[in-house]
Amino acid sequence: MMQAVQISEKVYWVGAIDWNIRDFHGYSTKRGTTYNAYLIMSEKPTLIDTVKKEFYDEMMERIQSVIDPKKIQIIISNHSEMDHSGALPQAVEAIEPEEVYVSDMGFKDITAQFHRDLKLKTVKTGDRIDVGGDTVSFVEARMLHWPDSMFSYLEKENVLFTNDVFGMHYATGKLFDDENEERLWLYEAEKYYANIVLPYSDIVLRFLAQVQKMGLSPKMIAPDHGFIWRKDPSKIINLYAKWASQAPNNKAVVVYDTMWGSTEKMACYITDGLRAGGTVVKQLSMHSNHRSDVVTELLDASALIIGSPVLNSNIFPAMADVLCYLKGLRKKGLVGAAFGSYGWNGAPIDELTKMLESMNVQVVAPAIKSPFVPDENIKKQCRDLGLLVSQKIAEKLK
Ligand code: FEO
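^ thats the input. predicted complex w/ MU-OXO-diiron below
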């Protein structure tokens, strides 16, 4: 039988580890993930969140290793996305808890997902429930990252259950921050922020201020993905404050695809100009990079330069894919420009400029278009564009 792991006096981890997931609704999860669920072994045993449907048995085995599941009296669902609620209907059926608590929006979302009566009760920010020997209070975390998102706080033990927030897609058998090497997890935490939380950065800043005002200083932060923060919860809070601020940095990202190497050649000259201008640059071909790694690189950048060849009077499909994805994630404070090669119709390259504008990127120059293979004049224009973008970033940093 798979075992629960005690994480504090009364709290046990009863989640599941998904070692081999590599695509999480379009986000590449090279290190897998975990679905963390928690069991409070108080006088009224309480389960916080469940797991993805396919991992129901693993969660129940871990619960059974410490308690007969039928003895659980309360279930709290902090977030209705299927990776945390997929096993909820089956768990409610097996456990028959007295109460199932959700936020108002959680009620709507869970009902719309499962179309059955799960005897849900709604709670709001400031509501508190007795779990027998301790109290759980609730803080709604709307749009972090869904309207229903909610935190639960076990008061006496000072443990904050934050669902997706402060988590990462990182499968690990080691449950705590101090057991995992920072060089391995830091990129995954940053990637998680860039791909899941970035559009809500203003809300993150307001929420962090609200939590500080409430005087919450949890000794442990227990998210629903990755590991638990016990040694230094302030570490991830400070990282969130930094990422959410989207402060300018002397960094540019050049994203492109190429057909016969011409657009790639242009990218190389732009990159060379950026380097000469003193800017840290990442040159990312969509042949070799996943959209979710592109946005991770963009998180701390101040410029986005995009390139595409023309194919069938349109931009390359891989560029349409990444630009659609980036637009949704709404990175702020970027300058940028477009470039590309064509055979007989260069007009589609202007679509790239329009896409940048639709993403609220400040376009600093008209698109550079190369008929077929770039000549010396085009190469110079590309290098000059890199220098110009470096100059625009430097102005932002003043
Ligand atoms: Fe881990 Fe929004 O689900």
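The pocket of MU-OXO-diiron is lined by residues 79, 81, 83-84, 145-146, 164, 224-225 (CB under 6 Å).
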